[in-house]
Amino acid sequence: MCSHRLTLVEKRYLFTPGPTPVPPEVLAAAAEPMVHHRGADFREVYARTLGRLKEVFRTESDVLLFTASGSGAMESAVANLCAPGERVVVVSHGAFGERWVAICEQHGLDVEAVRYEWGEAPDADEVGAVVRQSGAGVVLCQQSDTSTGVVADVRALKAAVGAATLVVDAISSLGAVPLETDAWGIDVVVSGSQKALMSPPGLAMASVPPHVLERAKPSRSFYFDWPRNKRAQDALDAAFTPAVSLVRSLDVALGLILDDGLDAAFVRHVRLGRAARAGVKAMGLELFSPDDDSAAVVTAARVPEGVDGTALLAHLREAHGVTLAPGHAHLKGKIFRIGHIGWFDVFDIASALAAIELSLTELGAHIERGVAVARVFEAFETKVTV
Amino acid sequence: MCSHRLTLVEKRYLFTPGPTPVPPEVLAAAAEPMVHHRGADFREVYARTLGRLKEVFRTESDVLLFTASGSGAMESAVANLCAPGERVVVVSHGAFGERWVAICEQHGLDVEAVRYEWGEAPDADEVGAVVRQSGAGVVLCQQSDTSTGVVADVRALKAAVGAATLVVDAISSLGAVPLETDAWGIDVVVSGSQKALMSPPGLAMASVPPHVLERAKPSRSFYFDWPRNKRAQDALDAAFTPAVSLVRSLDVALGLILDDGLDAAFVRHVRLGRAARAGVKAMGLELFSPDDDSAAVVTAARVPEGVDGTALLAHLREAHGVTLAPGHAHLKGKIFRIGHIGWFDVFDIASALAAIELSLTELGAHIERGVAVARVFEAFETKVTV
Prior knowledge:
The structure is a homodimer. The longest helix of chain A is centred in the last third of the chain and has 21 residues, at 262-282. By secondary structure, chain A is an alpha/beta fold. Chain A has 13 helices and 14 strands. Chain A has two domains: 13-21 and 261-381, Alpha-Beta Complex (Aspartate Aminotransferase, domain 1), CATH 3.90.1150; 32-260, Type I PLP-dependent aspartate aminotransferase-like (Major domain) (Aspartate Aminotransferase, domain 2). In chain A, 41% of the residues lie in helices and 15% in strands. At the A-B interface, helix 2, helix 3, helix 4 and helix 9 of A face helix 2, helix 3, helix 4 and helix 9 of B.
């Protein structure tokens, strides 16, 4: 959205997979008068938020809450679980898998990456074999790699890696697709506030059960030190001044999610994914993300022949106030991504598809007009059982 | 403030040195609709905020902006400047000096701490001698240690440590008392959003000039890696999803501060400090923080004989909705602290003193009644030249 083209009153539409749209009541919570983080007013909000996080993570264990981007929570796992020189396995099938690799390398670990084509889903048996062969005690993966739309079967990955500690980056998937932290035995789950938790960015989390804390190494990070943060949190007294206003927002957002029920959210995300895929295909575009119900987080489509993807996204933003996400790295200009995580309903998908159809036509592409939106609504209505 | 005593509509008064009160227009900015951090709408805010930070830091160099508490920015200096085993000097005269020690120890540094009694100001000549003798290349200190109210002469410290890299924690002092980063040759200044910058907590900063970046070691932190964050920031493209709403708030707050002028802020803080000290003394209490104009950030007073400081602060909160700060560590229960950094005016000081006077009386202390508030206004009016 470019201010010299759009006026301030022209509407903006945010269809990106993070930051995602934030409900007005969640935004309003961030504007409440400041209170002290050690006073009773805040402690009440803090305790409730920590409790709600456990419900959303579906764990009985502590969920540590950091003031940081999601990458901070990712680094916390590496800094607390792995010693320099230690062999770890990273499962990489997109840009965020490569982020695990970069974090581990910066910490001096011996990284064995199991790499898949971007857009391909990891194979649990293959990962299990690599882990056994490598002797790695820690395995790091994504549940959803937002760069491709692929959602991995982390339940199968945990079954395949056995006793190794599995760290799952669920930054873009927590609250969108099922993740049964305790029931599936996932050792560590990291997430962030600005995706399906429909809150402003700036908070990151890591679920850390006692058996994982026992295996922790001396943390190489002071700020992200798990035992220090856990001790403080246990006393409802954050180790460092927390982002008070963001915690308030998160509290309200988690309340909205849990009032409706997590299962309802999972069903809605499947339906949103179906709607987005149906619309994309109806106008004759090719999907990049998988064409099945697993792709409930983000829908990625190839930009049609003869159109530059970067120009398409710029046109959407500048002419229509619509923000979609581009491709990462080698996919830049070749795909675009529609996020549908968090505070999304079918009319958002319809608007995104209508804007894409209009913009592609304006840029001279031959696109089948007028069918996508109807297909969006039809696909959204098909029955889902999760 | 305890919700079972105070009703929701009873007013709260926040007189703590961080989080500090946030002006309504700054809070309102945090509630604006979410935008994507890579879109033009946000880039404009981001660029302006980074520019305004340079003005407040009084530096031509980059000010790196992290989504984190202030301690994150402190750790960034240690992770980027010092190699494990390296000897560093920490100047410690309060709880936050001890935080430098803890961060350095967690990073495996060889820490030589120059310790002063809490409440005492560091002696630049003495620190200079220790630095020369130790051969340390990095010296870490506080400009203001919020735990005591002491503001150190960091200009003299820089002159005394010579070629060693001086890292100044100005988390509670930046924007409250003069800090001429470039003119005084201060190598690195770290700060946070939630003190004199009168914004919500959650953003931290570090000014990093080119000569310091050249001396940087390979960062032991991925998230706080200075070169990675600098490269991204140079392209107006944060390395990690920034706390969009907090950046918007900070932008508005910095605009308010700079419109009025930093020098006006420095004068106001001196006057606020005078007012607070005059009020404390007028009711017969003993100051813990220095009784001079350097103590412009926080005023600390000893709790009178026969009164428990913890009970006093609880009474202030629960009966009157007034939040003051307690003493840290061995000073807990023995002192209380009145913050006057950021969005404070003389009526706030008067209210804080009136509430203390009232509460002490209610707790049975023999306090001279009715003189403190008058003295607050008189002292505030005395002429200041900065």
